[in-house]
Amino acid sequence: QVQLVESGGGLVQPGGSLRLSCAGSGTIFRINDMGWYRQAPGKQRELVAAILSSGSTNYADSVKGRFTISRDNAKNTVYLQMNSLKPEDTAVYYCNAEMPYGLESRSYWGQGTQVTVSS
Description:
The protein has 119 residues and is an all-beta fold. It contains no helices and eleven strands.
């Protein structure tokens, strides 16, 4: 059984930084795309950043230039470095991983980690 476990969330002042980690465990042969999503109270879950198996990345416009996604394939881990944090970045952050499942692909989610940006 595959599990994704996030860590690194917390309370930070505006302008501060946090680094989120998401480690996969269990029987993992290959991870294709990985990403970070977030969901603020009363809002839909949105994509923050994604990194493909090729290493290509894409970001939501709201975080471009402030957030950086990276991955360590040997550790089945994806990271999100968040700098210059703003109150509007406050949300529960979820990691996602797409893995082959037979001839198809299966999506796995972490349990979420709270990020609160407040003075």
